[in-house]
TrEMBL record:
PANTHER family: CYTOCHROME B5 REDUCTASE 4 (PTHR46237:SF1), CYTOCHROME B5 REDUCTASE 4 FAMILY MEMBER (PTHR46237). The keyword Acyltransferase does not apply. This is Cytochrome b5-like heme/steroid binding domain-containing protein. GO terms for cellular component: cytoplasm. Gene3D superfamilies: Cytochrome b5-like heme/steroid binding domain. The keyword Heme applies. The lineage of its organism: Eukaryota, Fungi, Dikarya, Basidiomycota, Agaricomycotina. It comes from Schizophyllum amplum. Residues 34-49 have a biased composition (Acidic residues). Residues 1-110 are annotated as: Disordered. InterPro entries: Cyt_B5-like_heme/steroid-bd (IPR001199), Cyt_B5-like_heme/steroid_sf (IPR036400), Cyt_B5_heme-BS (IPR018506), Cytochrome_b5/Flavoprotein_Rdt (IPR051872).
């Protein structure tokens, strides 16, 4: 009987764990798969150098010819300058045409305008104030039709008329205010001064300057 019981206990299954007890689970360490060097994965060393384009082993790079490097003897020489070859220190090079000299038609000396020292109170502002003062600067009561013979009679310093662009002015009062002096105005006293005026100072508005001195218009001599 004792032998029977001993064999029965030895063959009995192991007791099941209690409900509150959790089975012990052994967690192993899972090793990551080895990286393949050819799968394009990142490496430990960072390199920001851009890749060569085209690739070094590409067909495009193989078909391109190597750049040609010119030597000093193969490069284009500077343009010839005959003036430098015969230039003497301290002397200007000989003229061979094509230089920077002015053409003969424009290289003539131009006469500079001469200005005279005006008396005190004879400046441009003083003349403007005189025109605005209401003083009679014409010497006539109404505008006249002035013929060349009538104009010729007013050729004195104290009675000087001139015509500019068809208008006749009594420039007697303007004599002391002229920057070029009275002598220049007397050159056109008693005659048509349009040509001399245009050559000397065409940019000046004569009508604005002498508007209060206008005496009439220049007309032709009446037919006899």
């Amino acid at each position: 009987m004792a032998a029977y019981l001993s064999s029965w206990f030895s063959a009995a299954p192991a007791p099941s764990p209690a409900r509150d007890e959790k089975p012990e689970v052994t967690i192993g360490t899972i090793a990551p798969p080895p990286e393949d060097e050819e799968d394009g994965s990142a490496t430990e060393t960072e390199d920001d150098t851009p890749p060569a384009f085209p690739a070094l082993n590409s067909a495009q790079r193989a078909s391109q010819p190597a750049p040609r490097v010119l030597t000093d003897t193969q490069r284009m020489p500077p343009p010839p300058n005959p003036g430098l070859a015969v230039r003497t220190p301290g002397l200007a090079p000989p003229s061979r045409g094509g230089g920077l000299a002015l053409p003969p038609s424009t290289s003539k000396p131009i006469r500079a305008r001469e200005k005279v020292a005006l008396a005190p109170g004879r400046g441009p502002l003083d003349w403007a104030n005189l025109k605005a003062s209401g003083q009679d600067l014409r010497g006539v009561d109404t505008l006249l039709r002035v013929t060349p013979s009538m104009l010729k009679a007013h050729n004195k310093k104290d009675d000087a008329w001139t015509a500019i662009y068809g208008r006749v002015y009594n420039m007697t009062a303007y004599m002391p205010f002229h920057p070029g002096g009275e002598r220049e105005l007397m050159r056109v006293a008693g005659r048509d001064g349009t040509k001399l005026f245009a050559v000397t100072h065409a940019w000046v508005n004569a009508d604005f300057m002498l508007d209060q001195c206008m005496v009439g218009f220049l007309v032709s001599e009446p037919a006899s």
